[in-house]
Amino acid sequence: MISLQYDLTTYRKFQEDLAAFLGAAVTEGILTLPPSAGEGTIRLLELPDGTEVLISRFRLNHPILLERRRDDMEFYTFCSEEITDVQDFSMSIGTDRFRTTDQLTAMYLTSFLFDVGYLLPGGSQVRSIRVLLTPEWMRRYWDLDQQQQVLQQYLEMKTAGVLYKKVDAETRQIMEEILGQPSRTGSPLLFYQSRILRLIEKFFHWMNESFSQQTRPHLDISREDIERMRRTESVLIADLAAPPTIRELARQAAISESKLKRLFRIVYGAPPYEYFQRHRMEKARVMLLTGKYTIKDVGYALGYANLSNFTMAFKKVYGHLPSDLLE
Description:
Blueprint: E1 2-6, H1 11-22, E2 26-27, E3 30-32, E4 38-46, E5 52-60, E6 64-68, E7 76-84, E8 89-93, E9 96-100, E10 104-111, E11 116-120, E12 125-133, H2 135-142, H3 144-156, E13 165-166, H4 169-179, H5 189-211, H6 223-236, H7 246-253, H8 257-268, H9 272-289, H10 295-301, H11 307-318, H12 322-326
Parallel strand pairs: 1-6
Antiparallel strand pairs: 2-3, 3-4, 4-5, 5-12, 6-11, 7-10, 7-12, 8-9, 8-11, 10-13
Helix pairs in contact: 4-5, 6-7, 6-8, 7-8
């Protein structure tokens, strides 16, 4: 298991840090993965308008866990990617988790205001286009000041799951035009800029249609209640070894216990304790996959004095015992 936590400031810095971590070198903006990690490349492009882009084409030989720590900067990452040959891929944005055993081909947007994590199993093949978007870029190309509510709604609705746009025929064609270029190509940067702008345009058009004031998903609660549940969720999973009681959560939110349960289920799709357990077991799974901890270490770290209770809780969520995962 390769595990890396990092702070993202620029893609150039990320590429350099990743190369140093893997014991590889960056040549002419291209990081070639060493055999110890996999095979393929991660290429940095700096477009004429100053936008940074990472174009990745690689296959992993070993599992990798990448965790980007949150930041207070108002930056965004646009992703258009295809992940195939997947056995068990998971992604987290903030406190949300998305997990699949099927291939993923999608476009989505993340904010620096949330932690983001990716857990890719060995054998996975990744073809990805990632664009670092500054507030200045968003205002220039997307009229951020006018679209702020749409963006906020999209980011808020991640509470219902990681939201992404599935790739359609035109999007796939654009991705192939970009990803199909040789790593060391003479194609002008304007070639990439025009096609990347089209990808982002399609995504923002979908986001406008899906999350405008007129068409946004209807929740039977107010924006104030959504924010109240966001604060409640933060308190709930702040310590995965010791969950607060419903009474404590209701007191913190200044509402009744019954109302808290109802609102939490509407926003997060599950009762508070079930939601807590999913995150607790996901943390356990990630810890075990790093290879740094024993089952006993993980169980005790997550508040289980009785390890048999931990193994049964793990099996209830994943359908198999922690020991099966290690095998």
